[in-house]
Amino acid sequence: MLTRSELPENPVVLALAGEDGRPLPVEVERVRGGLVRMRCGCGENAAQGWCRHQVELLCLRYDRVLGRDPELEFQLEDIVMGTPLADLADELDLAAAEHAQAWKALEACRGAAERHPGAVAERAADLADAARRLDVAVARFRKRLAAADAAQ
Ligand SMILES: [Zn+2]
């Protein structure tokens, strides 16, 4: 992980495609103590203190980035790679995928609910576990983001 003073560009701003089709600038900045501050102006972020745009960028997924620029992507990677926030984003991303998968599995056995209640109970228990893991992952991610917001 590069230190803050070694970063060639800090902060960087990437424009993502917003839900309404308008560009959504996301600012990413390394602050003291290896913390990463990320500002996104989307409604999801305002409502819940984090958003999928942050997670996507921290997981180095650029599908939503407008006018892609490899140089800017390298600069972003220098800022986020190896940081605890990037690790937490990976955890959250995995937990969200497992949660979605558990929902699908439960829905898939809905038609057999009367014949195989045991199977439904098992899938429901899997979903409950996945939801708890996701809840923990979100809480840890938000806490880390908030720590960077409070830093100078
Ligand atoms: Zn956002």
Bound molecule kinds, no repeats = zinc ion
Give the H and E element order: EEEHHHHH
Query: What's the arrangement of strands in the largest beta sheet?
Result: 1-2-3
β-sheet strand percentage: 5-15%
Tell me the structural class.
alpha+beta
Largest sheet: 3 strands, antiparallel
Give the termini separation: 20 Å
The count of strands amounts to 3
What's the mean pLDDT score?
Answer: 95
Shape: elongated
Rg over alpha carbons: 18 Å
**What ranges have pLDDT less than 50 throughout 5 or more consecutive residues?**
none
DSSP helical segment count: 5
Count of the separate structural domains: 1
Q: Work out the helicity level.
A: 40-55%
Q: In a nutshell, what does this entry contain?
A:
With 152 residues, this protein is of the alpha+beta class. It has helices at 43-48, 52-58, 70-80, 84-108, 117-150, and strands spanning 12-17, 23-30, 36-40. Helices cover 55% and strands 12% of the residues.
